[in-house]
């Protein structure tokens, strides 16, 4: 086993040292989607291997104990338990809030279009990357020019599975993020239960995760943070399960989830270091098993493409003229990210209070310390990032990665508060010897819900953030109805048009490759258009200069025009002067 690990390490080091960045990018363009397909298949096989565990979890969560009534699903007898009914009611309410109370929109422009475009390319061509020139011929998509993206491909890969099944449509991607949010609620529930929390703790953990305002807001976008938070929670849940019972099937599932979580966001791989620390803290004896290292080698091989991805994009500017990470950003970021959880402005202070109570209450000391470490890792990493402030543009989304451990601690705190109240309100105990903390737990849930209701205006608000790009997005979608379906658009955001099923190409070619523009005019019978969008309105930007140069070199015939504040938008048919 040691020899296999050594061979793997030497091979990985040889690739990093001996393969050029260009060749590595070309290889990863094909290798990453296949690697994620294999990991996803192993995840499904692992779930099949754990089918008895899933059946037992379903029975214990949703059905009455000892019920011998009518036989239900999979031969499980029983009727819905009060705990199961409460969880289902919470899930239904949360999904209704996510789908109907929040605004279904993009909030990171134009990254979400890039994610969807990458998903479209993975689904159609089996390659990952940003398409800067793509066409459609009778419904068949041809991505002609791809560039490797600095962001990992995990979230686009998940979207690509839906696009393969149902076709490319932004709506399906929004619904997928809604579903991911719902699964995250269940993961928070089962983490709390796995580390020893009772029915009240588990329900409160799920409820807190469900009701965090920014969790709801971002679950109705195409951002990568909701799936990143979900897979981080899945890894934590599997680690707690494996540490508790030492079963190889849970470790196998963990190995299959490892490459998926690493492919969600650049910092998502930190959860694997947390998992190693958690295993050492909870059950270090498992490290002496040969099976652990065999399955660990499988995980290492599956994670290798993400390691190479990090190497390839390490020199990218990420939009920063100076350093991306620095202690110099700490003071500015902590001034915002520290009070975020306490000021009751964008995050309910009641949730923080419950989390602190849960952290300081008795029982499960090691598990609580690990939950705190999980929170600190994904809260603290952004304190040193140049754009890590939750008030920097739309970067409140970074907070999503810290919500799962906080929700579990809050769930434990909710149970502790209810238990404390039950000891002082014996007259309110339910008759017949029922659960003594049921009444105070219900009262606490009502109090928390009333306090949380004040955040509904925030949840329903679209906000002024990125108004110029958002209006451009809407304008471009409406303008497409005014031009022939067989046409091509020169635009700074080709992925946006490609996801809508229209040919698109970067506008640089209008200046640097005029023969190609001439060829496109012949191929599309003159239906070549230029999108005067958001990037043409930015002040002092190179993209604005490109727009001006195109206006000087070509005749622009308006097909659609609009204006929002001092921004002008247009879709123009172009001709050579």
What does this structure look like?
With about 575 residues, the protein is α/β, with parallel strands linked by helices. It has 2 domains: about 1-50 and about 80-105 and about 175-460, no CATH class; about 465-575. The protein is built from 24 helices and 7 strands. It has helices at about 1-20, 20-50, 50-60, 80-100, 110-125, 155-165, 170-195, 200-210, 215-220, 225-245, 250-260, 270-280, 290-315, 330-335, 350-360, 365-380, 405-420, 440-450, 455-460, 465-480, 495-500, 510, 515-525, 540-555, and strands at about 130-135, 140-145, 490, 505, 530, 555-565, 565-575. β6 (about 555-565) and β7 (about 565-575) form a beta hairpin. The protein is globular and about 85 Å long. The chain starts with a helix and ends with a strand. The model is unreliable at about 70-75 (pLDDT under 50).
SSE-based structural type = alpha/beta
Low-confidence stretches: 68-76
Tally of helical segments: 24
Report strand %: 5-15%
Main sheet: strand order: 2-1-4-3-5-7-6
Q: Quaternary status of these chains?
A: single chain
Helix % is 55-70%
- End-to-end Cα distance, whole Å, is 69 Å
Shape by Cα distribution: globular
Please indicate the count of domains.
2
Average pLDDT taken over every residue: 92
CA-atom Rg in angstroms: 26 Å
The counted number of beta strands is 7
Largest sheet: 7 strands, mixed
Write the layout of secondary structure elements.
Elements: H1 2-18, H2 21-49, H3 51-62, H4 82-101, H5 111-125, E1 130-137, E2 140-147, H6 154-166, H7 170-194, H8 199-211, H9 213-218, H10 225-245, H11 248-262, H12 270-282, H13 290-313, H14 330-337, H15 349-360, H16 365-380, H17 403-422, H18 438-452, H19 456-460, H20 467-479, E3 488-490, H21 494-499, E4 503-505, H22 509-512, H23 514-523, E5 528-532, H24 542-553, E6 554-564, E7 567-576
Parallel strand pairs: 3-4, 3-5
Antiparallel strand pairs: 1-2, 1-4, 5-7, 6-7
Helix pairs in contact: 1-13, 2-11, 2-13, 4-7, 4-8, 5-6, 7-8, 7-10, 7-17, 8-17, 10-11, 10-12, 11-13, 12-16, 15-17, 16-17, 17-18
């Amino acid at each position: 086993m040691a020899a296999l690990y050594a061979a793997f390490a030497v091979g990985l080091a040889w690739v990093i040292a001996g393969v050029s960045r260009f060749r590595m990018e070309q290889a990863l363009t094909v290798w990453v989607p296949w690697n994620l397909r294999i990991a996803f298949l192993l995840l499904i096989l692992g779930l099949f291997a754990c089918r008895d565990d899933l059946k037992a979890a379903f029975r214990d969560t949703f059905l009455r104990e000892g019920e011998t009534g009518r036989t239900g699903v999979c031969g499980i007898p029983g009727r819905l338990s009060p705990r199961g009914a409460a969880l289902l009611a919470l899930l239904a309410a949360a999904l209704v809030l996510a789908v109907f109370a929040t605004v279904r929109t993009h909030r990171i422009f134009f990254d979400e279009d890039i994610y969807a475009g990458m998903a479209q390319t993975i689904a159609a061509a089996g390659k990952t990357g940003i398409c800067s020139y793509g066409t459609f011929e009778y419904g068949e998509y041809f991505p002609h020019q791809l560039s490797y993206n600095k962001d990992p491909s995990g979230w686009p890969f998940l979207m690509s599975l839906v696009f393969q099944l149902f076709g490319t449509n932004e709506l399906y991607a929004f619904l997928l993020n809604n579903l991911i949010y719902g699964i995250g609620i269940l993961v928070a529930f089962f983490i709390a239960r796995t580390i020893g929390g009772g029915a009240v703790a588990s329900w409160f953990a799920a409820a807190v995760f469900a009701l965090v305002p920014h969790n709801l807001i971002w679950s109705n976008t195409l951002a990568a943070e909701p799936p990143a938070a979900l897979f981080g929670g899945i890894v934590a849940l599997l680690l707690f399960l494996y540490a508790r019972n030492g079963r190889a099937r849970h470790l196998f599932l963990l190995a299959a989830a490892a490459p998926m979580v690493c492919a969600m966001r650049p910092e998502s791989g930190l959860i694997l270091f947390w998992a190693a620390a958690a295993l050492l803290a909870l059950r270090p004896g498992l490290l002496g098993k040969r099976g652990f290292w065999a399955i660990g080698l499988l995980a290492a091989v599956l994670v290798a493409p993400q390691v190479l991805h990090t190497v390839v994009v390490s020199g990218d500017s990420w939009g920063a003229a100076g350093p991306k990470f620095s202690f110099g950003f700490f003071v500015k970021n902590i001034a915002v990210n520290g009070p975020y959880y306490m000021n009751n402005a964008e995050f309910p202070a009641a949730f923080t209070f419950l989390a602190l109570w849960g952290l300081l209450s008795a029982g499960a000391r090691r598990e609580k310390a690990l939950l705190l470490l999980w929170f600190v890792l994904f809260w603290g990493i952004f304190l040193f990032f140049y754009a890590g402030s939750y008030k920097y543009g739309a970067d409140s989304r970074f907070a999503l990665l810290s919500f799962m451990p906080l929700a579990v601690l809050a769930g434990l705190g909710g149970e502790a508060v209810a238990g404390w109240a039950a000891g002082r309100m014996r007259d309110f105990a339910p008759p017949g010897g029922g659960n003594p903390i049921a009444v105070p737990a219900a009262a606490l849930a009502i109090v928390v819900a009333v306090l949380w209701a004040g955040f509904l205006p925030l949840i329903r608000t679209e906000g002024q953030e990125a108004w110029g790009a958002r209006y451009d997005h809407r304008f471009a979608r409406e303008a497409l109805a005014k031009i022939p379906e067989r046409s091509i658009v020169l635009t700074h955001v080709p992925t946006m048009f490609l996801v809508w099923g229209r040919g698109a190409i970067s506008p640089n070619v209008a200046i640097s490759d005029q023969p190609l523009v001439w060829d496109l005019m012949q191929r599309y019978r003159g239906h070549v258009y230029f999108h005067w969008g958001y990037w043409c309105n930015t002040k002092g930007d190179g993209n604005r200069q490109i727009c001006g140069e195109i206006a000087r070199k070509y005749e622009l015939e308006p097909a659609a025009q609009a204006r929002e504040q001092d921004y002008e938008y247009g879709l123009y048919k172009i001709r050579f002067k």
